[in-house]
Design brief:
Length: 258
Amino acid sequence: MRTAEPSDGPAPGAQASQDGDSRAVTEAALFEAFGGVRGMVETVLPGLLFVAIFTVNKDLKSSALAALAVSLVLAVVRLARKDTLKHALSGVFGVAFGVVFAMMTGNAKDFYLPGMVYTLGLALAYMVTTVAGVPLIGLILGPVFKENLSWRTRNPGRKAAYAKASWAWGLILFAKCAILFPLYWWADTTQLGWVLIALKIPPFLLAVYLTWVFLAKAPPPIDVFAEMEAAEEAEKAERAERAATGRRAPSDGGRHRR
C-alpha cells in the first residue's frame, strides 16, 4: 500500500482560490482608491460641460460658471448621500482653479491649464518617488490595502509591483502631457477641450489596468492593522495572566505557612 507523500504547496484548487481572492481584493481596492465609474463621471462632466457650451456660444463666463455649478452639485449629492467627498471635492477645486485662472487672463484655454500642470506634476511625482525608492502608488494604495508602508521593508515583491505601477502611471501621464501642451499653444479652445476630454478616461483606465496586473501577480499585502490588533490582544492577555498570578501567589503562600 502506498503512503501519501507530503505536498510541496497548496493544491491547485486552493491556489486558484487564493489567486482569485487576491485579484478580487486588488480590484476592490483600486475601485475604492480611484473612485470607480462615479469618480470618472465626476472628473469628466465639468470639463465636458465647459467645452460643449463654449463650442456653442464662445462665451467664457457662462461656460466656466456652468462647469463650476455642476461640480458643486456633484459634491452636494455626495454630501447628501454621506459618500466620500474626496473625488467630488478634488473636482470642485480643480474646476475652481481653472475658472479663476481663465477669468483673470481672459483666455478660455487657461481653464484647462491648471489641470494640465497638475497632471504634469503628478507624472513627475510618480517617477521621482519611484527612483527614490518610495513609489507614489504604494503610498496611495498602502492604507487602502491596510498595509501602510510595510511593503517598503517587509514585502520586496510588493514593492517591486508598486514601482512598476508607478512607472506606468508616470509614463502614461507624461505621454498625455506631451500631447496636450503643444495643443495649448497651437490649437484653439474647442480643439484643446475636446482632445482633453477624449484623453480623460482611456489613459486612466490603462494605468489602472496595468496597476491591477502588477499587483495581482505580487505577494499579498501584510495587514499591519490586524497585526497591531493581535499584539494588543496578546498584551491584554499577558496582563490578565500576570494579574491572576499575582492574586494567587499570596493565598498559596498563606496555605504553605499554615
